[in-house]
Amino acid sequence: MTAIDFSMALWVIVVPVLVGYLLGSISGSLVLGKLSQVDIRSMGSGNAGGTNAFRTQGWRFALGVLIIDIGKGALSTWGVAAAMTTSGAMPEGHAITAASIAGFGAILGHVWPLYFGFRGGKGAGTAVGAVVILAPGCILPMLLVWLSSLLLSGYVGLSTIFAGFVLVPAMWWFGPDPLPTSLAVFAVSVAVLIVFTHRSNIQRLRDGTENRFNTQKLWRR
Questions:
Q1: Comparing C-alpha atoms, which of 42, 196, 174 is closest to residue 123?
Q2: 3-state secondary structure of 40
Q3: Quick check: 74 and 86 in contact, CB under 8 A?
Q4: Whole-number Å distance between alpha carbons of 161 and 152
Q5: Residue 180 DSSP class
Q6: Helix 59-86 vs helix 124-134: angle between axes, to the nearest 10 degrees?
Q7: Which of 48, 140, 159, 167 could form a disulfide with 150 if both were Cys (CB 3.0 to 4.6 A apart)?
Q8: Above 70 in pLDDT, residue 189?
Q9: Global pTM?
Q10: Which residue in 149, 21, 19, 129 sits closest to 74, CA to CA?
Q11: 104-118: pLDDT as tens digits
């Protein structure tokens, strides 16, 4: 690899993923938990995500968590590419690649946060923030699948897994045309990671012990 190639790889890959990871490590539930002197990882399911925040702390706390987690995904994705292209550190054509890498780095930071002992959430909210910037057309089909699954089953984790799966075809149908390779890789990587982080939910579904939001079955009312 030449010096020019190495420099470009540094700016397009290493810097975005590090910046995204550091921003993603700012966990909404754990930051708000510190302000409230609670650690939701010791409550409920033990997960530092929005669902457990809602179950253990209520909707106001959970809303704050969601805003932070979605916001950091969006900020990482948009901010890194914008800063690097406007500063002249990277050609504009590489912006989508840097944005994809930064967004995925933020998701990794949420799941394994540097500032909180590498024990974070499952990455769904942060992934939504990244997708809003990278391919906003994918949000509606993901949301429809998530809501439909939740109303029919009451399982938040299962609904999130389905929404993660839908991101892959949605990226091809509703993403930029032609679809950049970096976005295709991003979509597949997010879907795989969502399944991995929800592996405990999958096991509880198999065992018949998964928590269910019965109040979400609005169609029965």
A1: 196
A2: helix
A3: no
A4: 14
A5: P
A6: 40
A7: 159
A8: yes
A9: 0.87
A10: 129
A11: 999 999 999 998 889
